[in-house]
Design goal:
270 residues, alpha/beta, Rossmann fold, nine-stranded mixed sheet, 5 helices, 21% helix, globular
Length: 270
């Protein structure tokens, strides 16, 4: 007797389902693409819905796919950088670095006492990514910091953070839609890409307080919140929003800038 067909529950739409995704078609061999290191985070099996209970305690390296998709669309070859690997192991192997978003930077890193509004900090990630920044500076790599990446770079360079800015934590909005208008310095590298203004998303509850010495604020929100930093004389740009989640991520000039500068590094090694 034939078994009746199994009835499976319809999958629940994922957050952000239906939004435009970066579609990538490989058109050249990977060797022709500069290698862009992308940082991520470590979670446990218990953090993932549907994961087997007996695997609840294992560690998982987690990376948001949109970063890698945007890098690939811009012509780069993304490679994920596990936290357990010492940054020195990547010396001479990477052409660029993308510091991704995620958990709060530990306030003790900038001499502050954690407030009750600080989320779960990830000291191992702080340590690993600060090591990657040192590596990038030693190897003269282009660096793009996004959200937490901007905050980490400011802390690395001696700046501090506001530990809680709830007005900017817009988790009630679709991530691929801009809803904050920022003002961009027209003479900055960011200004050459975007012009004097841009509408961006906002998915952060912390922001820059004291700007690191020698760094320039190149974009601000209407309330004065720092939205972008650049380090004159270095190939470093950092933004507070999430360009990889926007509908136009595949054509965003930020990723094109990162890959172009990384290609220069790659060519110099040949």
């Amino acid at each position: 007797m034939d078994r009746p067909p199994c009835r499976r529950p319809s999958p629940r739409p994922a957050a952000g389902a239906g939004r435009s995704r970066v579609r990538v078609r490989m058109i050249d061999p990977p060797a022709a693409r500069p290698l862009i290191g992308v940082s991520g985070r470590v979670k446990q099996g218990s953090d993932v819905a549907g994961f087997p209970d007996n695997l609840a305690g294992i560690g998982l390296d987690v990376y948001v796919s949109d970063y890698a998709r945007a890098v690939t669309a811009a012509g780069g070859l993304p490679v994920h950088l596990p936290q357990h690997v010492h940054a020195a192991a990547y010396a001479g192997r990477l052409d660029g670095l993308l510091l991704s978003g995620g958990a709060d930077v530990d306030p003790r890193r900038y001499g502050a006492t954690p407030s009750c509004d600080v989320g779960v900090v990830e000291p191992d990630r702080d340590r690993a990514e600060l090591g990657l920044v040192e590596l990038a500076m030693a190897d003269d790599l282009p660096v793009l910091g996004i959200c937490r990446g901007l905050q980490l770079l400011n802390v690395w360079a001696g700046g501090t953070l506001h530990q809680h800015v709830p007005a900017h934590a817009r988790y009630d909005r679709a991530p691929d839609v801009g809803h904050d208008d920022i003002v961009v310095s027209p003479t900055s590298r960011l200004g050459l890409m975007y012009g004097r203004s841009r509408r961006v998303n906002s998915l952060h509850h912390q922001s820059v307080d004291r700007v690191a010495e020698g760094w320039l604020v190149t974009a601000r929100a209407a309330d004065g919140t720092v939205e972008a930093l650049e380090w004159p004389g270095h190939d470093v740009i950092a933004v507070q929003w999430h360009p990889e989640l926007m509908a136009d991520a595949a054509s965003d000039p930020l990723f094109a800038w990162l890959v172009e500068r990384a290609r220069t590094v790659m060519s110099a090694r040949v």
